[in-house]
Amino acid sequence: MGELLGILLTAIQIYSYLLIASILMSWLPNARESSIGQMLAKVTDPYLDIFRKIIPPLGMIDFSPIIAIFALNLARNGLVVLFSYFY
């Protein structure tokens, strides 16, 4: 049971890093059009689109990635609590 929790927490942490990389690449011109940028967009945009529907960008600033990372951290903490009941 502990191994499953470790795998899930690692997957959430890796996805958080991918979100951060995607955010940083959005600041660089033409970085999103590169092959790495397109791969990151395919992986992260479906999750970010959920939050972009709820929180539209305010001018040039998009707060949805911050909320998305916050939601991942809440899910991570929820998994720890949930597994603590069974472990």
Radius of gyration: 15 Å
Poorly predicted residue ranges: none
Q: Note the total helix count.
A: 3
Task: Give me the strand/helix succession.
Answer: HHH
Describe the biggest sheet? none
In whole angstroms, the N-to-C terminal distance is 7 Å
- Structure class: mainly alpha
Proportion of residues in helical segments: over 70%
Report the count of strand segments.
0
Question: What is the arithmetic mean of pLDDT?
Answer: 92
What general outline do the C-alpha atoms trace? Answer: globular
Strand percentage? under 5%
What does this structure look like?
Helices cover 79% and strands 0% of the residues. The chain is mainly α. Helix 1 (2-27) packs antiparallel against helix 3. The longest helix has 26 residues, at 2-27. It is globular, with a radius of gyration of 15 Å. The termini are close together. The mean pLDDT is 92.
Task: Name a few traits of the molecule.
about 90 residues; mainly alpha
List the topology elements:
Elements: H1 2-27, H2 35-54, H3 64-86
Characterize this entry briefly.
The chain is 79% helix and 0% strand. It is mainly α.
